[in-house]
Write a structure and sequence with these properties.
The structure is a single chain. It is built from six helices and five strands, in the order αββααβββααα. The chain is mainly α. The strands form two sheets. The chain has a three-stranded antiparallel sheet with strand order 1-2-3. It has a two-stranded antiparallel ribbon with strand order 4-5. A hairpin with a 3-residue loop joins strand 1 and strand 2. The longest helix has about 45 residues.
């Protein structure tokens, strides 16, 4: 009886292990797919758009507007100095390495599929922008009045870890002038949503916001399998 319980527990453990491997592989596939889309669009924009070029995609509220930034999501910066850029890139690198570990931990600990997908989105976004920061300065020429070109490694506009992140998605859903009577902003132009971003930024935002608004539903762990519990009790 003791041997039977042990074998049953081992089979259940092996089954769960195989399921976790499949879930982790699916999460990694999501990461790779987002990175592929993100980088493909960035490569296209970088090599086909002059800096600041804007093209309307759907009316005036969805545009492709090429800019670059040395900072975080939506153009925010840690510092104007070169050291600030290096610190931010190294922080991204550490965050991505930790992200892979954390994603695996989420899978192993039995969190919901939604939580795994959100984790994959956040990791993909961080890795997508990290690629820009680490390598783009080495493989692209400057974007200004000339179209950027893909060049041999090390002959680009910058150094390792000093690349600029490519942004292009622009959604000015509201573009109006505020009435004169509005305090502080009266008579000024008001645009919503003004930041220009990329696929990686969107992935991070979707993952984080989904976890924030649906945390009670998503951040829950799988209940222990009764059969596994019973088997472990028999072994004891």
């Amino acid at each position: 009886m003791r041997q039977t319980g042990k074998e049953q527990a081992q089979r259940l453990s092996l089954t769960r292990f195989k399921k976790n491997i499949v879930k982790y592989r699916h999460a990694i596939l999501i990461v790779l797919l987002i990175i592929l889309i993100d980088q493909a669009l960035k490569f296209y924009i970088k090599t086909h758009f002059y800096y600041g070029k804007e093209v309307e995609v759907i009316g005036s509220w969805f545009r492709l507007h090429f800019i670059e930034n040395e900072g975080m999501a939506f153009g925010m910066k840690l510092s104007q100095a070169s050291a600030g850029k290096l610190i931010l890139t190294l922080f991204r690198l550490v965050a991505v390495v930790f992200g892979f570990f954390l994603l695996k931990r989420i899978v192993v600990r039995g969190y919901t599929r939604g939580a795994i997908i959100c984790g994959a989105l956040i990791l993909a976004g961080a890795l997508g922008n990290l690629i820009d920061s680490v390598f783009y300065g080495l493989i692209f020429t400057e974007s200004s009045f000339h179209l950027a070109r893909l060049v041999p490694f090390g002959q680009g506009y910058g150094q390792l870890f000093h690349g600029r992140v490519v942004d292009m998605l622009y959604f000015p859903l509201v573009d109006t002038r505020m009435p004169q009577w509005v305090p502080f902003v009266g008579g000024k132009n008001f645009v919503f949503f003004e930041p220009v971003f990329n696929i990686a930024d969107a992935a991070i935002s979707i993952g984080v916001l989904t976890l924030v608004f649906f945390q009670k539903r998503l951040i829950t762990r799988r209940q222990p399998d009764p059969a596994t519990t019973a088997s472990l009790e028999v072994q004891a």
